[in-house]
């Protein structure tokens, strides 16, 4: 196996196995720090040994065994001699605690990390790190905050768990509803990172993350079948994920929605997503955020051609969403739809009045660049593209934005 193939195998194994190994160790040892650190050590051992020894037939099993050994070694080092043999014996002989209402290790870890002792932001950040396997830079971009602040948030969350002696335990059925909102947020952010990765050193579309987010959301829906927002989240993932094959060109460039080959969308997955949206509408219960987002995506998939999109319905859905989630990002997305309905000048006036904090968000500058382009303001459009390219993370979107900027022509010389 070549060095490049080995690197690709290790990277893929990390993406596929990190959360499984961490979750298994957390359930067995009842210590989140120990689980994460031992898993990291196991991957470091793989990087050191696999080039000489070869990749094992079952990398996941190898990593699990290695991580378990590292955890036991760490416990032995950190306890007294009389205690360490007893604890090591327990690790080998005592079966893991019963799974309770959640049998999937990763899903149980998500519910466990979303503990009410932590702030909502800390719950989400900690869970994305431990279960999603996302890096601190990736999570920071998802939160639109600086990396040091995000790192401190995760560290404080772990310290609070230790100080409060929050045990790793199976959440009871009564615990689940109070943790559900945070769990939905985690699953949504994991899906988003897979749908369009924010980092420069990874594939622009990470199917292992979107697939895992959908799998876990299906399990949550089985646990909470009457929760409309879980159903809406699943529909949103399905309707978005069905477009995977059309989102990146053969040359590695991001393909925007209006340019995608709709014939390559997965019709069966779209059908499942639409049926969930219709079933929720039929209940007559006012929809929440994820249900409205799913409905917006359903309208997009209803159009056989981008020119047939019902933009008035999309704007109306964004109006409804803004009433329950008046965030600047929702307002930005609404402005994009308004541009198709009322023109770019109206939309640009909306965008320019948005919260200045969006200046750190590359999509804000992309939107301005496209609207300015349509209005014929090439120099301002080019400047907005420059800012967006400086903020964007993945190579596919960088390639697309660079091409769009280049189409504006050569920048005129300045005096």
Automatic annotation (TrEMBL):
GO terms for molecular function: DNA binding; sigma factor activity. SUPFAM superfamilies: Sigma2 domain of RNA polymerase sigma factors, Sigma3 and sigma4 domains of RNA polymerase sigma factors, TPR-like. Residues 179-278 form the DUF6596 domain. Residues 110-161 form the RNA polymerase sigma factor 70 region 4 type domain. Keywords: Sigma factor, Transcription, Transcription regulation. Coiled coil: none annotated. InterPro entries: DUF6596, RNA_pol_sigma-70_dom, RNA_pol_sigma70_r2, RNA_pol_sigma70_r4_t2, RNA_pol_sigma_r2, RNA_pol_sigma_r3/r4-like, TPR-like_helical_dom_sf, WH-like_DNA-bd_sf. GO terms for biological process: DNA-templated transcription initiation. Residues 76-99 are annotated as: Disordered. Residues 16-80 form the RNA polymerase sigma-70 region domain. NCBIfam families: sigma70-ECF (TIGR02937). Belongs to the sigma-70 factor family. ECF subfamily. This is RNA polymerase subunit sigma-24. It comes from Microlunatus endophyticus. The gene is rpoE.
